[in-house]
């Protein structure tokens, strides 16, 4: 079963951007990790990244139409994009898993990071576990698909 792992703005800069917060590994490493973890779980994982809100919203529309479960790190969109929130809501409303992941623990950081517009519509949220959080999210998706 296909699963998309979508990453929002500035996550193409992993490894370079605030390595003390996000680690020293880059997006390509995350892509390889997620693909390998997916394979172990019997999931065909496709990892994407965009800085463009419209593109991310379009991915959610397609996920609904093609019945594709989603793992999402919405990055800064987390904190303000009602457009992405509505699009994510369509995914879970369609009965598909949508797991929200954050590499850091946003609630331990700046005040503006304490609220997520995605969490209220997500199936579940994993924060503060680094890249390992994506593995946990993929395990959750595999579990939910077995239900
Ligand atoms: C992030 C946390 C967000 O607050 C931030 O804007 C990001 C990354 C994380 O993975 O910890 O870009 O989603």
From TrEMBL:
<dbReference type="InterPro" id="IPR036441">
    <property type="entry name" value="DHquinase_II_sf"/>
</dbReference>
<feature type="binding site">
    <location>
        <position position="113"/>
    </location>
    <ligand>
        <name>substrate</name>
    </ligand>
</feature>
<dbReference type="InterPro" id="IPR018509">
    <property type="entry name" value="DHquinase_II_CS"/>
</dbReference>
<feature type="binding site">
    <location>
        <position position="73"/>
    </location>
    <ligand>
        <name>substrate</name>
    </ligand>
</feature>
<dbReference type="GO" id="GO:0009073">
    <property type="term" value="P:aromatic amino acid family biosynthetic process"/>
</dbReference>
<feature type="active site" description="Proton donor">
    <location>
        <position position="102"/>
    </location>
</feature>
<dbReference type="GO" id="GO:0008652">
    <property type="term" value="P:amino acid biosynthetic process"/>
</dbReference>
<comment type="similarity">
    <text>Belongs to the type-II 3-dehydroquinase family.</text>
</comment>
<feature type="site" description="Transition state stabilizer">
    <location>
        <position position="17"/>
    </location>
</feature>
<keyword id="KW-0028">Amino-acid biosynthesis</keyword>
<dbReference type="GO" id="GO:0019631">
    <property type="term" value="P:quinate catabolic process"/>
</dbReference>
<keyword id="KW-0057">Aromatic amino acid biosynthesis</keyword>
<dbReference type="InterPro" id="IPR001874">
    <property type="entry name" value="DHquinase_II"/>
</dbReference>
<keyword id="KW-0456">Lyase</keyword>
<dbReference type="GO" id="GO:0003855">
    <property type="term" value="F:3-dehydroquinate dehydratase activity"/>
</dbReference>
<feature type="binding site">
    <location>
        <position position="79"/>
    </location>
    <ligand>
        <name>substrate</name>
    </ligand>
</feature>
<comment type="function">
    <text>Catalyzes a trans-dehydration via an enolate intermediate.</text>
</comment>
<comment type="subunit">
    <text>Homododecamer.</text>
</comment>
<dbReference type="Pfam" id="PF01220">
    <property type="entry name" value="DHquinase_II"/>
</dbReference>
<feature type="active site" description="Proton acceptor">
    <location>
        <position position="22"/>
    </location>
</feature>
<feature type="binding site">
    <location>
        <begin position="103"/>
        <end position="104"/>
    </location>
    <ligand>
        <name>substrate</name>
    </ligand>
</feature>
<comment type="pathway">
    <text>Metabolic intermediate biosynthesis; chorismate biosynthesis; chorismate from D-erythrose 4-phosphate and phosphoenolpyruvate: step 3/7.</text>
</comment>
<protein>
    <recommendedName>
        <fullName>3-dehydroquinate dehydratase</fullName>
        <ecNumber>4.2.1.10</ecNumber>
    </recommendedName>
</protein>
<feature type="binding site">
    <location>
        <position position="86"/>
    </location>
    <ligand>
        <name>substrate</name>
    </ligand>
</feature>
<dbReference type="GO" id="GO:0009423">
    <property type="term" value="P:chorismate biosynthetic process"/>
</dbReference>
């Amino acid at each position: 079963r296909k699963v998309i792992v979508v990453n929002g703005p500035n996550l193409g800069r992993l490894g370079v951007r605030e390595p003390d917060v996000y680690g020293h590994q880059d997006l390509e490493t995350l892509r390889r990790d997620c693909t390998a973890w997916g394979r172990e779980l019997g999931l065909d994982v496709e990892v994407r990244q965009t800085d463009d809100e419209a593109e991310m919203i379009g991915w959610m529309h397609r996920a609904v139409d093609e019945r594709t479960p989603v793992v999402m790190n919405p990055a800064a969109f987390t904190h303000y994009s009602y457009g992405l929130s509505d699009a994510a809501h369509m995914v879970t409303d369609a009965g598909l898993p949508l797991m929200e992941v954050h590499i850091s623990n946003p609630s331990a950081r700046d005040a503006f990071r304490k609220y997520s517009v995605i969490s209220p519509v997500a199936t579940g949220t994993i924060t503060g576990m680094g890249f390992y959080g994506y593995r946990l999210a993929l395990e959750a998706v595999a579990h939910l698909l077995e239900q």
